[in-house]
Design goal:
It is built from 11 helices and 9 strands. The chain has about 375 residues and is of the alpha+beta class. It has a 4-stranded antiparallel sheet, with no helix packed on it. The protein has a 3-stranded mixed sheet with strand order 1-4-5. The radius of gyration is 21 Å and the shape is globular.
Length: about 375
Amino acid sequence: MPLPSDEFERFLAGIRAFTRDRLIPAERQVEAEDRVPEDIVAGMRQHGLFGLTIPPEYGGLGLGMEQQVRATIEFTQASSVFRARFSTTLGLGSQAILHNATEAQKRRTLPRLASGEWTAAFALTEPEAGSDAGNVQTAARRDGAGYVLNGRKRYITNAPEADLFVVMARTDPRSTDHRGVSAFLLEAGAPGLTIRPPDRKLGQHGSHISEMIFEDCRVPAENLIGDTEGIGFKCAMDGINVARMHVAATCVGQAMRLIDEALTYALERRQFGKPIAEFQAIQIMLADSRAEMLAARAMTLETARRIDLGERPLGDMSCCKYFASEMACRVADRAVQILGGAGYVTAHAVERLYRDVRLFRIFEGTSQIHQLIIAREMMKQAGAGAR
């Protein structure tokens, strides 16, 4: 159940203050040092950010989807790198466990994830398995009282920091699709698991992605999520669907920050004897950005409310992620244009935000994948209506 309204509003006010007083002032340090300081991670734990999606019986806040979206919009008005530090716990990690694991597995892992004692990472993507999530090649061979994993994962967010990995691996070597894929719980430091040094990236500095290599990595049989082989794809989608709503909300928060930065600059910067905000060309870019941001915010909140009512609007969830991520990139481009040279140098937040938001059109399903999902769901509904 969601938090009561008054309790949630107090929680939201605390997040808003944390974002304003701690996160935004630390953005340049995070960019320069390529890491989120531990005192800020401790603050995230204290505010319950690792447990937003985890039910109270496992130590989390158990926010409803609308509340999750509203909270995300608040803390992502700071650098999205901060959100990345706990996002893999919120969606991809915890939800696979919450909806599929045995009660013993939940009791062992979810309270540690909710408190932030553990950071989760989600190990799905491979050289041949990204958008084609069912094409996992990492193999899990049954061997006595456990499994032996061999294979390679890449672009795994928070892999260097993670304490617990949700790993997708193929348990049926004869299968050629998602039905042969299973999900495992693997703790950091397991023999046979190597985490490579973090990849260098265009943006999102301070959030780390790494390659994972499994070489005869042994996993106890009790770490098979749900004690059932072949449900790996369901585990993945339970996390991915939540994460897509969070990404849409993140794009709204980032767009709000970009608009604020662009408007502030336009009001202060003077050319031809007056603020550039008085020029129609600048006003048009500001207005377009505001209108698109509000559209993304409205559709994301409306879809979140439907999820809270028990619906599973997959096509509209994809609409949210697709539209919001494309919108954020358009807003970022306009912000750079409004700032001109100032938007292209590292001294201004807009330059960094411009690089950071480009990721959102790629991960949790590319824009092109979401277009296909949207069209597929439309055709399904049309077919159901025809019958």
